Amino acid sequence: MAAPVAAAARRWRRFWGPRGGPSPLRAFVTVIPKVSQVDNSSDFLGHVPHRRHPGVLHLKSVQLPAELVKAAQLLVQQSMVPGLKEQVVALTNYLWSRKRPPEASELQRQGQELMSELRERVQPRTADAPNVLTNAEEEKLQTRVLTRLRKTTYHWEALRYTDELGLVYVAARLDGGFAAVSRAFHEIRKRVPAFAPCTLLDFGSGTGSVSWAAHGFWGETLREYLCVDSAAPMLALAERLLRGGSESQAPLFPGVYFRQFLPVSPKVKFDLVVSAYSLNELPSLAERRETVRTLWRKTDGFLVLVENGTKEGHQMLMEARDTVLGGCDKVTHDPREAHVFAPCPHHLPCPRLSPERPLPCNFPQTYHPLPFPWNPPQKEEKFSYLILRRGPGAGEEPWPRITQPVLGRPRHVHCHLCCADGSLQHAVVSPRRHGRDLYRCARLSHWGDRLPVRTPPGEAPPGDDGEAPAGIGAESAVPER
């Protein structure tokens, strides 16, 4: 008898808090407002299991092709790179913590502010005499400003890939990059099963993992894979991987071409254009924007951008999103509009980029890494991605995206959602308020899936009336008996 009473007391304290009042976290929880209930009688699920509802997009675990694993192992074993494990760890940490290159205008602004601050300290300005410094004092002040800027500014450097660094990159990033791109391709194939690309452009192709992933999804229709990378050693390494680790063996699948530059003609377009972990290799915001415009001009179907799941990676993707949606391209070769296919369910500013507390919009993907001694059986890649599509996106369901792990509790589920009205909601789904089918769909969903709910057309989204969303009351939050 004591055990059930103690369990009930724990549940009571979890909801009401340690002092008998409502838990402070409950004040930020809202019920999904004005959501249509769904059930199997409406044929919404098509009589499929709830764990396979239409919003499910996650992959359990990505497995690299056996031929690619064998080729990567062969190349690494033949190279005999000294201290490979330590170099892999160092390169992985460096790439994850890498930031965007500082802009010259921002550095100039910081330098002027710092110069004014230091000048005021050396000789404060008065009404009678302005703070005029001698030439020697001015030079000393400039030296102090430059020293301060060097200490506080991120020192971005372009990566110079050599044969040895390329092999370290294969051991460090081949599997994780393959997993992230596979997750993005899986969403396209799941939501648009009729999409059958014939041509692929991979900008910043590196090890060629994008071509391997695309071949696994659309190998029956793809006839041309164009890999573009400015580093000649990486192109040679990707070609050797394609040949099974040998220079004389035939390619494991045909139609792959390697180049150091993008095609010049604007009329050359590709069904699928991809840039994975490449935007941060460009030295300025202007070059990133121009590159994104060029890639969009060459897109006939989908443009897929993937970056690290950090604040920097997410913000670079939002820059690219604004560049394409802004429509400021002076050269228009395709009148079709840009449509955000994933992960955003809207074209509004990202709600996670609040000035007070910007957060990255990222998603996890588990995978089986290359079988090196230092790798565990499974690893997780945390990445950010953006998929843009040609056309208005007619017929797309604006279902909200789950942006954090789903938290299951007795008879209710907590979901963090990015909604079609551009807001973030911490929603609680229960069978009493939302129906058994929607509740089970939410309970069996994962981080990165879409929750199949929508606000009926013509009704204002929550918060538009100036009132805060209603908090969870005891009727909806206390577990049902």
Q: Your description of this structure?
A:
- The protein has 481 residues and is an alpha/beta fold.
- The protein has three domains: 23-55 and 399-477, no CATH class; 62-97 and 161-390, Vaccinia Virus protein VP39 (Rossmann fold), CATH 3.40.50.150; 102-117 and 134-153, no CATH class.
- It is built from 13 helices and 14 strands.
- The strands form two sheets. Strands 2, 3, 4, 5, 6, 7, 8, 9 and 10 form a nine-stranded mixed β-sheet that branches. Strands 1, 11, 12, 13 and 14 form a five-stranded mixed β-sheet that branches.
- α4 packs across α5 (135-152), α6 (163-191) runs parallel beside α7 (209-218) and α9 packs across α10.
- It is globular.
- Residues 15-31, 34-41 and 456-481 have low confidence and may be disordered.
CATH architecture of the largest domain: 3-Layer(aba) Sandwich
Mean pLDDT: 82
Q: Give the domain tally.
A: 3
Class computed from helices, strands and strand pairing = alpha/beta
Form type: globular
Instruction: Write down the CATH class of the largest domain.
Output: Alpha Beta
Report the β-strand fraction as a percent range: 15-25%
Look up the CATH topology of the largest domain.
Rossmann fold
Termini, distance in Å? 18 Å
What is the H/E order?
Answer: HEEHHHHHEHEHEEHEHEEEEEEEHHH
CATH superfamily of the largest domain: Vaccinia Virus protein VP39
Describe the biggest sheet?
9 strands, mixed
Helix content: 25-40%
Number of strands: 14
Gyration radius over CA: 26 Å
